[in-house]
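seq as requested:
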Amino acid sequence: MIRELEDTRVFNYRQWNMGGYRTSILMTGTAVKALEKLSIGVIPPQYMLHSLTKAVHWLIGFSILLILFEVMRRNFVAREHHQVFFVAFFMVSLLIPTNILAFKVANYDLLSVMLGLVTLALALASVRNQSLKLALSAVGMGALASQEKIIASPFFALAMFFAVFIAATWQKTSKGSKQQATKSISWLRALGVLALSMVIASLTVGTTWAFVNSIHGGLRFSLPNALNPLTGYLSVTGATSASSSSAFVLASLAIYALAIVASFAYRFVGHKVRNNSLQGKLPVITAIVIVVLVGLGIYSSYAYPVYVHPYHPTPQGIYLPTKSFNDATAHYMQPSFSAHMVAATISSYSVIANGLPTFVWLFLIVAPIAGLLTKKTLVVPHGWSLAALLVMLFPLAYAVTQTPLGTRYLNIFLFVIALFVVLMATSLLAELKPQYTIATGTVCALVLFGELFMFRPVIGAFTPFWNKPDREFADKPLYGQGRAGHWAGWGEEIFLAGSKIVAEYKQPGKSVTIHASYPGDWLTEDTSVTIVPYNQFERGISPSDFYVLSRQAIYQKRYPFPHGQKPLFTIDYGGATMAWVFRGDQLTNTILFAAPEKQGGYIAEFPELRNRANDVSNLQKSTLTVFEDGKPLGPAHSAFDDIRKFGKGRFNHWENVVFFSTSDNSDPRMNGRRYEVR
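C-alpha cells:
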C-alpha cells in the first residue's frame, strides 16, 4: 500500500481498476511526489521514502481531524464550553485504538474515517443551520471519503439525503440568507439539488482520476467502476448491480423519494424538535440503548467463539452459511439457520463492545446518573444522538448479510459513538466547578490511557481488560478459531520480533534472516537483517535463521506449526500469544512448509538432504522416515501414484523434497499434529 502511494505505476492498479479511485493517492501520493521533486538530485534510500510516506499520510489525516474539530466546535458546542470540548475531543479521538491504528498504518482507514466523520458533521450541521451550502459541501466530502473506502458511503448517502431534504423543506427569505419553511414541498428545487449532488459526486471522482493520472500516468478510467464506492451503502460488502452508473442513478432517486417523505413528516413533528421537547431525554435514551447492546456484546465475547470454514473442519449437523468472504465462511457451531442468525446477530455487537476502551461504556452509564444527581441536563445535539443510535444498526447489517467483521470494519462507526460520548462529557463537565472539572477530566484521562498503555506500540491489539481468553486459545494456535476482540497479528509482529532478535540473539558482526509468516516489512537501514517474505517458503535451519509465526498466518494461511517444540520466545498481548518465534536450528527435522500436490499428498522441501535422497539412479537410497506426533509413518519409498491415491502415511524422499501423506489423509497444515523427519 505504501508503494501504491509513492508511485501507482509500480503497483498492479488493482484498486483503481476495481473503481477505488483512492483519495490517499490524490492527497498523500501527490504530496510525496512533490517532496521527491524538491529533493535536488538526492535519491533517498527506500526505507526513508517509506517512512516519509507514512509521516505525510499521518499529517494529512491529522489535518482533517482538525477540520472535524472545527466543524463540531462551530456548529454543536456552546462558546462557553469550547475549552472543555477541546480537551475531551482530542483526548478521546487520539486514544481510540482503531484511530491510532489508522494513523500508524498507510492504508485506506485513515482518510475514510476522518473524511467520513467530516461528512457526517457537515451533514448534521446543514440541517441544524438549514444550510444547503453545508449539505452540498458534505456531498463532496462524502465522495472523497467513499472513494477511499466504501465504509464511508452511508454518510455520503446521508449527505445527499439532507441536501434534498433541505431544498424541499426550506428556502431563502427575501431579506438575506436566512431560511424559512416553505408552505409546500419544493419538488422541482429538490430535484435540481439532487441532480447537482450527483454532478458534484461524479466530478469528485473524475477530477481525482484526472489529477492522479496526470502525475502518475497509465490509469484506466471507467465511469461504472468509478461510481462503485458511491453506491456501496446498498450492500455492506460493496456489491452493486452490473452497471454501477445505473445503480447510482436508482439509489439517488430512492434518496430523493425518502427526502420528500421526510419533508412531509417534518411539517407534523418539526415543532417538537424546535421547542426542544426531547432536550435531555434523547441522549439518555441513546445511552441506554447502546449500553444494552454492548452488554449483549460482552456476553457474546465469551458465549460465541467464531469458527472459519474451511480452515476449521465443520462437523455434520452444523449450519454452514452459503456466503463466503475472502474465500472463507464464518459460523458459530449452531445446528440451524435460525440459531446461527441469533448467534451472528448477538456476536456482531461483540465487535462494538471490544472496539472501544471500557471507560467509554462506563461513562455512558455514569453520565446520566451524574446528571440526575446534580440536576444537570445532558445537552447533546439531536443529530449526534440519532447518529449514535443509527450506527448501532450497522453490526446488525453485517450479521444479516453473513459478512465477517472486525473492529477495522467498524472504525468509523466506533468514532461516531466516541464523539457522542465527547459531547455528553462536554455538557456534563462544563457545568461543574473548574476544580471539579479538572479533577474529573484527569481521572478520565488516566483511566483511558491506563487501559491502552499495556498494548503499546501495537494499539491495534487492544482488548478491554474484561475480555480474557481461555487458556487453550491463549497458549496455542487454533486453526480457524477466533475469539472476539483478540488480535491475530497483522505484520507488526515482524518488527516486534526483529527488535528482540537483534537485541538479544544476533551475534556481533553476523547477519540474521527473519522468515515472515505474514505480509510485512521492517523499515530499517540495518543491512545485517534480511526479511524473507511469507510467500517464498525459503527453508533455513541455521542459528541465524528465525521464524516468526503469527496467529493470523496459522489461523488464515494454514501454515503448519511445530507443535511440541518450545518457541524461542513469544509476543503476547491481552493475555494471548500473538506470535511464536523459533530459531532455525530448533527446526532442523521439522516439516515447515507443506504444499498440497494437485492429485493428493503433500510436498515438503528438504534441499539440505538431497545427497541422501532417492533419485533415478537409486530408488531406495534414502534412510529418512517421516514422523507424525513421534510415530513413524510408512511405507517409505512408496510410488508417487500410491501416495496420491491411497495416502495413509505413505511417503517418498525424492531429491529435494519429501512427498508424504498423513495417517488419516487429513491436512498436515491444520490437523494440529507435529510432522518431522529423521
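Confidence is low (pLDDT under 50) at residues 236-242.
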